[in-house]
């Protein structure tokens, strides 16, 4: 620290971004390349297809089957956002259809739940990173962890629970009459 600099962080590390630092940069680059190739394959495949008419339930079902088959062949985990790209819509548009409670909306809601279930099952058998799966489930599929608290009297902190008569006896013993 020179000339009155009061920073506790050394200057050489003051602005270093370590978010993308990985021990093996070559392996990391290969993984990122594979992810981009898969995502781009889906994007270009969906651009070559005509937009799915999401108000025609039969066409919607056939297009959905095509998407799941595409994911299976490419080894891609299905997602609702990718599915919306496959149809040629934004995922927000699909949520509007789901909220309409039309037959197509009910079908899309079931597909969304199936995609969520696939991710849950993949996380349970360690086919995907559990932490990433939990993050995705919470952020995109309204997944909520629940905790159940059971309140019971404790013998360790306060001793044995007292009966009403015992409590009255203790109270009466502490009263000082003048």
Helix content: 55-70%
Terminal CA distance reads 73 Å
Largest sheet: none
Give the rounded overall mean pLDDT.
Answer: 78
Beta-strand percentage range: under 5%
Shape: elongated
Element order: H for helix, E for strand:
HHHHHHHH
Radius of gyration over C-alpha positions, nearest whole angstrom = 29 Å
Write the layout of secondary structure elements.
Blueprint: H1 25-48, H2 57-74, H3 80-87, H4 91-99, H5 103-124, H6 130-140, H7 155-158, H8 164-174
Helix pairs in contact: 1-3, 2-5, 4-5, 5-6
How would you sum up this structure, described in words?
The protein has helices spanning 25-48, 57-74, 80-87, 91-99, 103-124, 130-140, 155-158, 164-174. Helix 2 runs parallel beside helix 5 and helix 5 runs antiparallel to helix 6. With 178 residues, the protein is mostly helical. The chain has a domain at 23-140. The longest helix has 24 residues, at 25-48.
Top keywords for this entry?
mainly alpha, about 180 residues, 8 helices
Structure, briefly:
The protein is mainly α and 178 residues long. The chain has helices at residues 25-48, 57-74, 80-87, 91-99, 103-124, 130-140, 155-158, 164-174.
């Amino acid at each position: 620290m020179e000339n009155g600099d009061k920073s506790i962080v050394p200057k050489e590390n003051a602005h270093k971004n370590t978010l993308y630092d990985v021990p093996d940069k070559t392996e990391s680059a290969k993984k990122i390349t594979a992810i981009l190739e898969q995502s781009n394959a889906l994007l270009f495949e969906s651009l070559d297809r005509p937009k799915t008419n999401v108000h025609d339930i039969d066409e919607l079902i056939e297009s959905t089957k095509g998407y799941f088959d595409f994911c299976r062949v490419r080894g891609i985990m299905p997602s609702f956002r990718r599915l919306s790209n496959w149809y040629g819509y934004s995922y927000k548009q699909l949520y509007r259809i789901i909220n309409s409670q039309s037959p197509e909306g009910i079908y899309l809601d079931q597909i969304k739940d199936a995609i969520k279930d696939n991710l849950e099952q993949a996380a349970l058998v360690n086919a995907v990173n559990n932490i990433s799966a939990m993050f995705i489930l919470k952020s995109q599929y309204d997944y909520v962890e629940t905790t159940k608290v059971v309140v019971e009297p404790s013998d360790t902190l306060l001793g044995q629970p007292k009966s009403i008569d015992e409590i009255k006896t203790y109270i009466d013993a502490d009263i000082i009459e003048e």
